[in-house]
Amino acid sequence: MDSNKRDILRKVYLVYLAMAVLGIGVVARVFYIQFVEGDEWREKAKKLGVRYEEIKAIRGNILSSDGSLIAASIPVFDLRMDAGNTHYNDDFFYENVDSLALCLSNLFQDKSKQDYTKLLVKARKNNNRYLLLKRNITYAHLKKVRKFPIFRLGKYKGGIIAEARNRRELPFRWLAFRTIGWDKEGSDNDIGLEGAYSKILEGESGRRLMQRIGNGVYRPLNDETEIEPRNGHDILTSIDINIQDVAEDALMKQLIANEADHGCAVLMEVETGFIVAIANLGKNKEGEYEEKYNYAIGESSEPGSTFKLASLISALDEGLVKLTDTVDTHGGTVRYANRIMKDSHEGGYGRISIQRAFELSSNVGISKAVYRAYHDKPQQYIDKLYSMRLNQKLGLDIPGEGNPSIKDTKSRIWSKVSLPWMSIGYEVAITPLQTLAFYNAVANNGKMVKPQFIREIRLAGETVQTFGPVTLVESITKNPETLPKVRKMLEGVVEKGTATNLRNPVYKIAGKTGTAQIAQNNAGYNKSNYKASFVGYFPADNPKYSCIVVINNPRKGVYYGGSIAGPVFKEIADKVYATRLDQIKRETDTLPGILPVSASGNFRDLETILREINVQWKGDSQQYDYARLNGSDSSLTIEPKATGESQIPDVTGMGARDAVYLLESAGLRVQVKGRGQVKRQSVPAGSKARRGSSCTIELG
């Protein structure tokens, strides 16, 4: 028993000993490799090293409202060659290298045939497996390259390597450039829709295993990507590229004509808040206009007279003033503490109603009305402005929105003149888009909606998310009688106030002009720097669109909002009204109260016209070639007209075409005088027709 136990222990010890020797050997070998041969193996690892490389997903497209591309990722390729390819021998290479060099030279026209030949031959001799031939070639070029000598052997045998990347392109160039924006890799200064929706647009990157082939160069280890990228989503904007073009063109013309510094124009749907067009143009160093800053969103400054609407809404809604109340504008000046306020109209307007003061944009009139209402309770005025959300950002998806500034009576910069000057748009700051959102609320029955740029998010053409109106304030007024009064004032500005140049017979515009002096930092105001603006909505009786135009620092001597900004507004509005009739409901056309009591012409034409205008008529059910319409509004009859070839037909009351046809059918030569319907014919109706004789018809 003891003998067996000793045998077992001996065997265990032998196993332990063998394991210990093996372990010592492994440790020794590791030590030897690490510290004796380490440099050699590390060098080999570098040469044969592999790594994962990120494969960018195709960035999603940005689309206009009709689906047109306004920002897209276009595939481009870096063209490389495996010049050390072993699928063909040297004889084949040297037989074809001249032809390949000639094709590359003719296609890219960046090197001569000889230069390409030298490049290819050198790469072959050096066994260059990753030779760069051309960067950023198009897919059309790549298709041609694949048919070139050597490369036509195919992807593997021909040694062609095409590495795809995506390049961002703007098909419409500068249109809405700042709003579209950019997303620069590694930068925190991303702007516009590209920056705001970057995560949605960029998709998910894939991964490809790359092998080091020398000199810090890597090439794909496998033909297929290990982890495929997931392409980004597309975003469908509310931008109408045609209206955008009109807005930028109209703004550009006015900036150039008035040598202005910069300006902006924004068009928005009243009910939804979707931005249809947004143009921002400013002078660059060369003195040319371009979209270099989003003034509509980012520039917060004193609005001037367009702010008078907020002041009067406050007083009207709280029952502190009436539109019929009057104010004395004196000689066009009024003193508040140590400052004098002036009207632009020298001599003032005398005693006028508050409504008329608004229509004429009287600084003296509006400030006196507001001061009279709030001089003993100025914080109540401020609180009312706050309740209309004028002191808050709109919360835009696009970064860079300017901060509105409306101080309260506790502010250290509040003074005895703050109330009257704030009432006319000074000592406050607000962006053009924030101003537009406020006026849009007036047009939208008091509801303030958030301005938006994106209608849908799509993936592979399928809608995955839609966006609707976002309400910021349910109603900017408490009294239901306030808004009708306010709209009446805004219409009055165009009909008989400071913007009569916008009046037209087709549709009504409501809005407000603004002319503000621009503060020169600590130097105060001067008489040479102004900001002209017009903001409003149309059609006034059924608002569908709101729009604001702001032009800064015109230098041609004219600086009033109606004259400078108004024409841009009207050009945009005219284009919208002409092209979006499906969304703008015109007043129902009505027929005149008096229908024609006498008309003659082709029977089928008369019948069609009466049916289209839904007018009942009496007459024989038999159809005639030509007929006369007789009767009054309440009773119309269609009677046949004699058109026999043997006698002259009666063509009175007909149009020229029908009359000439009938008379020439009777064999007469016809001379036409005048325009309209036939009043007289020189050959009496019913007389015998003599072929070849003349007949003159007089139209009127």
The stretches of 5 or more residues where confidence is low (pLDDT under 50) are: 582-594
Q: Report the CATH superfamily of the largest domain.
A: DD-peptidase/beta-lactamase superfamily
Number of domains: 4
Biggest sheet: strands, sense, closure?
Answer: 7 strands, mixed
Instruction: State the end-to-end distance.
Output: 145 Å
Number of helices: 21
Shape: extended
Assign the CATH class of the largest domain: Alpha Beta
Overall mean pLDDT stands at 84
Radius of gyration (Å): 40 Å
Helix content: 25-40%
Strand content: 15-25%
CATH architecture label name of the largest domain? 3-Layer(aba) Sandwich
User: What's the CATH topology label of the largest domain?
Assistant: Beta-lactamase
Total beta strand runs: 31
Structural class comes to alpha+beta
Task: Give the structure's gist in a few sentences.
With 700 residues, the chain is an alpha+beta fold. The chain has 21 helices and 31 strands.
What features would you describe in this structure?
With 700 residues, the protein is of the alpha+beta class. The protein has 4 domains: 91 residues, Penicillin-binding protein 2a (Domain 2); 93 residues, 2-Layer Sandwich (Alpha-Beta Plaits); 336 residues, 3-Layer(aba) Sandwich (Beta-lactamase); 102 residues, no CATH class. 33% of the residues lie in helices and 24% in strands. The protein is built from 21 helices and 31 strands. The strands form 9 sheets. Strands 2, 3, 4, 5, 8, 19 and 20 form a 7-stranded mixed β-sheet that branches. Strands 11-10-9-24-23-22 form a 6-stranded antiparallel β-sheet, with helices on both faces. A hairpin with a 5-residue loop joins strand 2 and strand 3. Helix 3 runs antiparallel to helix 4, helix 9 runs antiparallel to helix 19 and helix 11 packs parallel to helix 13. The chain is extended. The protein starts with a helix and ends with a strand. About 2% of the residues have low confidence.
